[in-house]
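[job 4471] stage=fold_predict status=RUNNING
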Amino acid sequence: DESRSYGPPTLKDSEGSPTDNTYFFLCANRNKRSVTVNLATPAGQEIIRALAKECDVMIENYKVDDLKRFGLNYESIRKINPGIVYCSITGYGQSGPYAARAGYDAVFQAVTGMMSVTGLPDGEPGAGPMKVQLAIVDYMTGQNATVAILAALHYRKSGQGQGQHIDVCLFDSAMASLSHLGQLYLGSGEPPRRCGNRTMGNMPSGVFRCEDGELMLMLGNSGQFARACAVLGLDLGNDSALIDHWSVVDRDALVAMFAARFATNKVAHWLAELGAVGVPSGPVNDLTQAFADPHARARGIRVNVPHPLDDSLTLIRNPLTFSATPVKEYRYPPRLGEHTQEVLSSMLGYDERKIGELRRSGVI
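[job 4471] inference complete, writing structure tokens
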């Protein structure tokens, strides 16, 4: 798993020294168990088959057909477990001219057009395509895989135990995420242009600088526009000629008027005024401010998950909140191979002698 070494920075131990646990790995692996198995050995392949026979779901993230040479592809696994839901996650999918290619998140942001609609518009300083700093395509693909697996499990329950193979890839996930901009292109034939922090809508939305920072303003209808104008002291909110003819409005001039007003007071002042009349807005926080926000605190976004190397380790909680089955247990992201003996013993019934032999022969 390359994410274990994707750093620095890394988690520091009690003495402040770097460890082999990167923050990149820690962000995505809580509540998991780690088993190390050498897939290149027949005994290692047998371990995977034995585990798959006992499982509902098998997920693999290798290049297309990589597992076929080890007898661990879907067609091989379904012979020993016909009901298994087998999910393959790849860069470009199981078919198509690019199926054999490798790729990372940023590559898919570029290939699918996401970068072409992200960034400052042409003509402004710093203009040009820009990737999202977060690995957004990775996250969306993981969520799509989860939805697909749950749907396949539901089908299995209502379909006489039939499993199936799921093909999920970063390319498809990124293309699907183009949402209304993708539909705009399909309908008009015109590629959408970058608009920076503004929106493609009619209203003067975007990031506005105040005396002590920035705020994000989003106006979605004429009522919100009118109330924002009232807060800012602009006599525009009831201008029907303006509101009914957005296509010919000088938007740059309108934004400049908003910007001049916002610059006359502090972020907190404007947020209070806008919030009082139901106008959507928020501060442009850095991560220190975001995690310290009273709403983030009230929602319990940070959870303490003591790690063998750091008793004070905190992670981000599961964003799903259930009334009947709340997520209560958080286990630290596992160290490499930490649960090999536990899993082989509890799931497959291997005794200490057999596990010792596998260890000595380099299978685990």
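[job 4471] summary: Residues 2-189+307-360 form a domain with the Rossmann fold fold (CATH 3.40.50.10540).
[job 4471] exit 0
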